[in-house]
Amino acid sequence: MYRQCKIWPLAAAIFFSALAAAAPPPTTSEVIATAKPADWRAVDPQNTLYLQLDAGRVVIELAPAFAPLHVENIKRLAHEHYYDALSIVRVQDNYVAQWGDPDNRHATPSSSQSMPPEFERPLSDEVPFAALPDGDVYAPQVGFSNGLPTARDPQQRLLWLAHCYGMVGVGRDAAPTSGSGAEIYVVIGHSPRHLDRNVALVGRVLKGMPLLSGLPRGSGAMGFYEKPEQQVKIKSMRMQIDVPAADREHLQVMRTDTPTFKALVESRRNRYDGWTVHRANRVELCNVPLPVREAAP
Amino acid sequence: MYRQCKIWPLAAAIFFSALAAAAPPPTTSEVIATAKPADWRAVDPQNTLYLQLDAGRVVIELAPAFAPLHVENIKRLAHEHYYDALSIVRVQDNYVAQWGDPDNRHATPSSSQSMPPEFERPLSDEVPFAALPDGDVYAPQVGFSNGLPTARDPQQRLLWLAHCYGMVGVGRDAAPTSGSGAEIYVVIGHSPRHLDRNVALVGRVLKGMPLLSGLPRGSGAMGFYEKPEQQVKIKSMRMQIDVPAADREHLQVMRTDTPTFKALVESRRNRYDGWTVHRANRVELCNVPLPVREAAP
Predict the structure, then answer these.
(1) How many domains does chain A have?
(2) Neighbour-count burial of B296, counting CB atoms closer than 10 A to its CB (0-12 exposed, 13-18 middle, 19+ buried)
(3) What percent of chain A is modeled with pLDDT above 90?
(4) Secondary structure letter of residue A218 according to DSSP
(5) Who among B137, B274, B280 is closest to A284 (CB)?
(6) Global pTM?
(7) Interface pTM (ipTM) of the complex?
(8) Tell me, what CATH number does A77's domain have?
(9) pLDDT beneath 50, residues of chain A
């Protein structure tokens, strides 16, 4: 034993100098800074929605691959200027902010129609899915599909969007077919994953989350504002293509089907940031950020 | 095969009529409403901290079982009125709100001392732990310890608090021993569980979260407010026992080691609320709420 031990100092010296020579894996900032042009994609202008408030603009990318009829109806409602001058009526702490017309006082044919429950969809090779490595409490598999946090069940051959922070959904009443788009919500707290497969998620916020997450919480049941003057007026809600060119955003999001995104995920699983002392070696679906940047017009 | 099948209709009829006769399990509201006095405990006045802002009071219950020396130092700093007239200086969206003295301009001996890294503790029979049934992405086991979301590793014989929404921690610099209590943060977004075992968590907010989670987000790096006038002044931070009796809270929290709490957890795993169409049959640690109520003085 002792003789063997004698060689350890040399072996250790070689091992540790090799470690020192290897650079640590990149941090999240480094992954983003060194991403190549092909690691980014433009946001689809046909599916970009602007929620305009006095305080600024919230940019939402819609997800027609998951809820095509809901998305189509929201586009129709936006074209009809249905949402303009409606309000944010509900902000429930650690849950959702919600806008629209909960009492159907401004009902239109589009805002009143019955909708199929697009809460999940069949697995299909047409819908990309880049799996994450660390499992999930709620679903057999989780990962990303074109920037969207997604869960799936290979046995049931089903795929659905996950209620992560910043995801946008269509409120409904007790009837699963009642989500016309008259009420829209965004997740502002710990991800309420129990809502998965119960609501049609229609997209995610790419820019402007603090305009919603930082709103005063409503003091009524379920976070509804109790006085009309507490509600936050919607100036307009428009599809990007209906906005003058000079007033459009030029956002790009990081692609989620690339080695660069894998490196980004790894930089969240194990942080070599000079601060972390215990690296998790794990990451939850809803703790993976989606990098978004402004591109030149 | 066919003969066997002939008895199915009768068996099925018995089975489904039995199901119909049984009342559905209680909802979360029903569990809370029917909880008995013994299902609640008073908050420990020796470990209750009030963060007083112009907009109201945030009540924090401290966790000396997990970070005894950090808790002791925060009590000392509160007794010394160290926090009074300091400010909330940082609100980072989907992450934390933080207050204190990041630049050490108001340093005192207590606010400058080196602290042992109380990021995890040995498993012990003295520390209660009620396990949850559905696993976790980050830890081998999760559950509740006296109302605190907790993770543990039976092999390593370690136990630690989990960074769920509303948990309160002690900010530190790169040195693990630098968390004196000069900076304190609260989680206001999706639970950043990668911080587990990297920081001393010292308690959780029981009341007043919207006063922190609803603050405007800072526009500087890491959510720091860029202008001093954006900072939110702390009126005072005091232990409950240092506040006049007439001005004290009388909060009770639901015990987490009872059959009632198990029923509460079950009511979150499977919701019989007339709205849910797909019951998750799962619940994440950070999606289990801790009921808090006002008691008569």
Answers:
(1) 1
(2) exposed
(3) 90
(4) P
(5) B137
(6) 0.93
(7) 0.92
(8) 2.40.100.10
(9) 1-10
